Every structure is written in structure tokens, then in C-alpha cells.
Amino acid sequence: MMGEQLTIDDVRVTYNVAGRAALNAVDGVSFTLTPGAVLGLVGESGCGKSTLARAICGLVPLSGGSVTFGDVPVGSMGLSGRDPRLLRIQMVFQNPYASLNPRRRIGKQIEDARRIHPTTAPTVGELLDQVELPRSAAAGYPFQFSGGQRQRIAIARAMATGPDVLIGDEPIASLDASLQSRVAQLMRRVALESGASLLFISHDLAIVRTIADRVLVMNRGKVVEEGETDAIWGAPQHPYTKRLLGAIPAVDGLGRIPLVAQP
Amino acid sequence: MSDVASRSGAGDSSGRGTPQGAAVTVAGLRLTIDGKPILNGIDLELPRGKVTGLAGESGSGKTMTGMTLIGLQPDNAVVTGSVLFDGRELVGLPAREWGSVRGTRIAMVFQDPTASLHPMLSIGRQLTDHQRHHLGLPKREALARAESLLERVGVPDPAGALKKYPHEFSGGQLQRIAIASAIACDPELLIADEPTTALDVTVQAGILALLRSLCDDLGLTVVLITHDFGVLSSLADEIAVMRGGVIVEHGSRYDVIRQPTHPYTRELIESLPMHELAEAGALGAPGASEGTE
To answer: ABC transporter domain: from which residue to which, for each copy (chain B) (predicted)?
Structure first.
């Protein structure tokens, strides 16, 4: 199964803030996400990476540029029905406490998503197996699960639709530190096994490094550097990337705290 | 424990002239929840005025160890063994007596400052409540102290910050405020559980520098709980590696990271991306160390 290519061309998102100048949260970003690729998007809080994710799904209106999925333009999400082809972009949100319906059983929520699947969706049990949850979880409600388990459920629900593109918007940020890497690895595995591509957005450079093939570095709404993960870590070019990577403490046992110039 | 690779404080810890001796002595600490063993005999001395790092993976018991030190283990947990703090046995301490220890002599900083600070109380209120309770200060004095605390931890415009609410600050500033709150009653022991995990790396560097300076200037004994060896390498003086509810290796920062003796520690360190070690020269001469490992 090979998915469609997601093309982001010169995307701009502007927020109008009362009493202040308009804020260009995303300021002319272009990239393509090819099927089967894992793309990491890193940057500090406030750099516009979450806004970009929401723009790609049509959750915030664009003020310029275009997002195209295959040959279908992604427009703003409205009350009317969405082009079924666009349902092949799925998102996993930061907060699994808010993204699951608290009043419906896990199995039902995954069942809903399965109906969108273009061919034969895996069963709920198979989906729960994929995300390493017991099949009995289907009968439970969200409140019965921990944050890490809920995020796995959210991933299973996104995968039930057989997406071509899976977007994770800080999907691990609200999880216990020691679980983060495991859930990130799980997302990569689950996405690639089904032939989908993954856009993984995180401020955690260490984790992006372990799962992404390519990385985009964002600062103040712009992509300042893009490249193979190893190349970016091995030889960062842009001063911002250097500053970001320079702030990661080295594991040398010398007790040196990284010196970071404040901008 | 017989399998503990323990070494006395060699390494490069600079003599900061801190008082010698252990601030806390943990011996044979065990904890079970509904019969399930979580901690299986922790022996640990926390040197006064130093940062002791607790490393380990998910479920190794590092957070539960920290929680037990401050008496915040779950209600259904059964704790045995001994935690000696300033000559006082903390295991089995009645709740009433914990009230005069927790928050004043032993304090804690958590992973997520947006969750650990109350969203609907002003910073001024959150930095003075416990001072007024524990130290019996009048409101005005407590506020003045709160202002100097905020200055100490590097929050810009301390006077203005007192009137603000948590949502008006960034994550890094909130963590500074949480640290100010923790040190407000002059604790001797600070337990920091993943204090920088929720922060951007550039902000993390600032928080690490702050914790280092608090430790050096105030003689604070710090327990740093983290899974991140980079954080341990930059801040911890000693490192204890936990697995399955026991400490498998404990030694100076330099020794544990550069010459781990326990296979599990070696595995953890070797699983780190090589680049960081190589760049720092930790692998010795390029290409030379591969053969010896």
C-alpha cells in the first residue's frame, strides 16, 4: 500500500492579536512528505510547529500558500462533509486526556475510525495488539487508563483509518519521561508497518533523533534548516540549529553545564 | 546488596568546602504496593551539599524512591527499612510530624510546573502560604522574601511576577517559580524529579545552572531523578543507577559515566547516540576505545 504525497507550499498562518501587531506564527514554510518517510519537526516552544501541524490538517485557516495531499487541496475544516480522501491524514494530539471521548468505550471509538478505512481495516483487537495494549481494553473507558495507555489508544484510533499520513503534534510531551521514547518508537513502527508516512513534531531533540529519517528545524515561523537526521546532528549549518544542539548536555562525566547565549 | 558496584567518591568533584557527611542515610528501604514489590532494599547515602543523581528506566523505582524520601508514597504502600534524616527516622513517621518536615526541611520539584503550580492562585500567594505556615511570617515579610526568592531564581521583574498567575509565564519561568517555592522555607534536602524534561533544551541549560548554584550557594543537598544521562553528566556529583527497585551501581559522576562497572549501566551508556560521547572525547582517542570495550 503506497500513500499519497503531502505537499506544503509556502504556507503562512497569521494570528490577529488584539492590541498588537499580527503574529506570523507560520511564515512561509514549504516541504514535502513522501510515503513511508519519517520527518521530524523540531523547534522551541512558540516557534510555530504546532500551528503548522494544525494548518496541515485544516484546523486553522491559511493566510497564504497551500497544502496539497495527492492532488486534493486541503481546505479549512468546516461543518460540511470532508473530502474522504483527506481523511487519510490523521493526527495524534498532545493531550490524550482531551482527545479521547470520555463517555464512549475504547472499542467503539476505534470502531468509528475503522469505518473510514478504504479497504479492509484491521480488527480492533489487532489494532490494540499493535499498540501493545491488551484486547480487553476495548471494553474500557478512557478514565481507566494512564496517560501512556491513552496515547496508545489515540494512536490505535488514528491507525484504524488506514492513514497515508500520520501527524503527531507533541504526542509524547504529556507522558511520563521514561515512557516518551517508547511511545515515539511505537508510533514510528506502527506508521511504517502500514506504509504511512509520519510527521513527528516535538521539542525533544533526543527523541526526534532516534526516530526521524529527516529533520526540519523551525524558528520563529520559518524552517531554518532541513536535512538528513545524521547530517543535521553531525554538522549543523544554521546558527539557530547550532545553538539548539549546543544546549544538549554532553554525556562526558565532566560536570559541564552547557552555556547558552540568550537571544 | 552484594551486586552493588560501589566506589567511594573518587573522580573530579571539586572540593567546594561543603560540610562533610551524609545528609540522608537510606538503609534497606523496601516498598510494596498491594503485595507487589516496588523497592527491594535501597541503600544510599546522600552527601550533604551535593547533587546525587538517580538514574534508571521506566519502572526502575527512581521516582518512588524520591517520593518515599518526602513521604508522598501512595496510601496503600507498605514501607520498611530506614531513612535517617538529621538523626530522625522518616519511615513510619506519623502524618502529623511529616507536616513539620515536608515542604520546609525536605522539598520537591516536579516534572511539569504547569501541573505542580495552582492555576488559580497568584504567584505571590503560592510563594507565601507555606512560609506563613511553616515559618510563621507575617504576610508582608513573606511577600518580601518571595520577591527576593524570585530574584534569586532569575525570574524577571519579581515584584510584578508576584501579582501574576501561572498561565502568564512560560514553562521555563514556571519551573523557576516552582524551584523558588521549594526553597522558600530553607530546606536542607531538595528532591527534583525530572525537573527539566518538559522544557526546551536551551531553557533546560538555565535550570541546570540554577540548581547547581543553589546547591553551591545554599549548601542544598539535591536528589536529581532523571532518565537523561546528559542532565546527570552536567549536574550530578554522584550517580546511583537503579533497576528493578535496587541500586545496581553507585559512584562518582565521572566513574559511573566513563567507567561503568555494572553491565546494566554499561548497556545504558552504550545505548546513547555515540556522537555525543565521541564529540566530548569520552571515548578516548578516536578509534582506540572500540577494541578495549
So the answer is: 24-269
Is A259 at the interface with chain B, CB within 8 A? yes
Nearest-CA residue of chain A relative to B234? A255
Q: Which of B206, B233, B255 sits opposite A250 (nearest CB)?
A: B233
* Chain B nearest CA to A2, separation (Å): 31
CA distance B199 to A169: 16
Q: Is the ipTM of this complex over 0.90?
A: no
CB contact under 8 A, B253 and A255: yes
H helices of chain B, where? 62-69, 95-98, 113-116, 123-130, 139-152, 158-162, 171-183, 201-218, 229-235, 253-258, 263-270, 274-279, 289-292
> Cβ of B201 and A248 within 8 Å?
yes
Cβ pair A251:B208 closer than 8 A: no
Per-residue pLDDT of chain B (293 residues; tens, 9 = 90+): 444 555 544 443 443 334 567 899 999 999 999 999 999 999 999 999 999 999 988 788 999 999 999 999 999 999 999 999 988 999 999 999 999 999 999 999 998 898 899 999 999 999 999 999 999 999 999 999 999 999 999 999 999 999 999 999 988 999 999 999 999 999 999 999 999 988 888 899 999 999 999 999 999 999 999 988 999 999 999 999 999 999 999 999 999 999 999 999 988 888 776 545 444 444 443 333 333 33
- Note whether A253 contacts B204, CB cutoff 8 Å: no
- In the CATH hierarchy, which fold is given to the domain comprising B5-105+192-290? Rossmann fold (3.40.50)
- Which cell numbers in the block locate residue B3? 551486586
Burial readout B49-73 (b: 16 or more C-beta within 10 A, e: otherwise): bbbbbbbbbbbbbbbbbbbbbbbeb
In this complex, do A249 and B205 lie within 8 Å of one another by their Cβ atoms?
yes
Residue type at A48? G
Nearest CA in chain A to B59: A178
Domain boundaries, chain B: 5-105+192-290, 114-186
The reply to whether residue B226 touches residue A176, judged by beta carbons under 8 angstroms, is: no
Q: What is the pTM of this model?
A: 0.80
Inter-chain residue contact B58 with A178, CB threshold 8 Å: yes
What is the rounded CA–CA span in Å between residue B22 and residue B152?
26
Nearest Cα of chain B lies from the Cα of A157 at a distance, in angstroms, of: 25
- Any B CB within 8 A of A42 CB: no
